[in-house]
Amino acid sequence: MKRAAIFISILLFKAVLISKSFQVTPIDKISWDSFRIDKHANTMYWVEMILPNWDAVHWETELTTFEHRISRFPSKPQFANLSHKAVYTDSTDFYLYDFENGTTTYLFPNNTGNIIGPPLEFSPDDRYLLTEDFIYSFETNTFSNTPSLFKDWIGYMNWKTDTTALFFWEGYGNRKAKIYEQHIVDGSIVDSIPVHLDQYDFITGFKYNRELNTLAYSLYENYPKLHYLDLTTLKDSIVFDSKDYKSICPSYGSPAAFYQFDFASNNQNLVFANVFLTFMGSSLFVHKYDSAKTYFLLPCDDYGDKFTPRWINNDTIIYNDDLTGTIKGVKVFSATTPVLEHEQLQKSISELKITAYPNPFNSETNVEISIPQNDFYRIFVYNTLGEKILTLAEGNINPGVYNYNIDGTNMASGVYIILIENRNRVYSYKTVLMK
């Protein structure tokens, strides 16, 4: 049976397209943990784990054509910032690969025991390579010990200057949560960042923006907040409080966290994940610094974490989807809808409605569905023989107006039924394709 192509978009207020989701890695390949991006070549490096023995296969994916090929590296490489170079390991040693001239240079032994992709960090000016055990200087070809406080937190650090980095203690028990700036070579503490802990004492994540000299961070609480701390004026502002918008995520009120922040290259767009600490489930948000608005990007569902969101340009994000075990992407278009407008829209929708325009249609039609309340929905398209032609959506859907563009190029002329089912009833709508 020929299947119609489907383009799904979500409208949360009056007008424009929010986002287009797409598959990055093949649906039949389980991706292991996070990925790494070569921004010089717009290429992603990731690891497929093959069951039942969890054998690792390293892949590289071109992020424009989404062509996949076996990686040239035997581990996940870490990329330099200014030059097109990468460090990788073959399980026994570390090497530096230069993409411009195709040369490989031996660096030092691998004593980490990690052969998949050990944590490594280039300094912003590419002079230093920070590992869990030592700091390597490319200028002098010398080593120094990694400051003890960095050893367990290298994956959570943020560079502040070319020689200092921010790291955080989460805070638990008798240990108070703190964010420090520390010199990477001699280990001296430069400064302690005055984050606003209030009665909460557990930092869930942070991201430093060098151009704005601003720290985005969040704390562990039932209704998490997004803070911006201006390190020039030390003004701490709450720019998004989830408690004010409880209906976008019915699970708010359970312990939750904002974490895994990432700024786009324009230094204005911040993506972050929401995760619940008592069950599997998450969503993605984008905050725009210039407009001071927060945008609801992906549904707040109760199945599977969405983690490691990363910008590949100023309007496209890729992330790990725990539900499918794959890597997905979201194309964020110009005018998205702020959370506030989403909240207002929910209050205005009183019943489920389905419309399609044009109808009858020749090649494609736009189906608009108004969802009045959060529920588990199945939205299918059937022909008159009772055969399911395609699936528009299946899963928890939050209140809002959703648009589905159905391309009937490969569909036969005739009547098609759009069927929507939730836990309580079934809705149907007839469309006619005339060629």
Keywords for this entry:
single chain; 435 residues; mainly beta; Immunoglobulin-like; 4-stranded antiparallel sheet; 36 strands; 2% helix; 50% strand; globular
Distance between the termini: 18 Å
CATH superfamily of the domain at 349-433: Macroglobulin (MG2) domain
The overall strand count is: 36
- Order of strands across the main sheet: 1-34-31-30
Strand content: over 45%
* Low-pLDDT stretches: 1-19
Oligomer class: single chain
Query: What is the CATH-assigned architecture of the domain at 349-433?
Result: Sandwich
Shape, per Cα inertia axes: globular
Estimated radius of gyration: 24 Å
- Percent helix, as a range, is under 10%
Mean pLDDT: 81
Structure, explained:
The protein is an all-beta fold and 435 residues long. It has a domain at 349-433: Immunoglobulin-like, CATH 2.60.40.1930. The chain has one helix and 36 strands. The protein has one helix spanning 339-348, and strands at residues 5-11, 19-23, 36-38, 43-50, 55-62, 68-70, 78-79, 85-89, 93-98, 103-109, 121-122, 128-130, 134-137, 142-145, 158-159, 164-169, 178-183, 189-193, 203-209, 214-219, 225-230, 235-241, 256-263, 269-276, 282-288, 293-298, 306-313, 316-321, 326-332, 353-357, 364-371, 375-383, 388-397, 400-407, 414-421, 426-433. The strands form nine sheets. Strands 1-34-31-30 form a four-stranded antiparallel sheet. Strands 2-29-28-27 form a four-stranded antiparallel sheet, with no helix packed on it. A hairpin with a 4-residue loop joins strand 13 (134-137) and strand 14. The two termini are 18 Å apart. Residues 1-19 have low confidence and may be disordered.
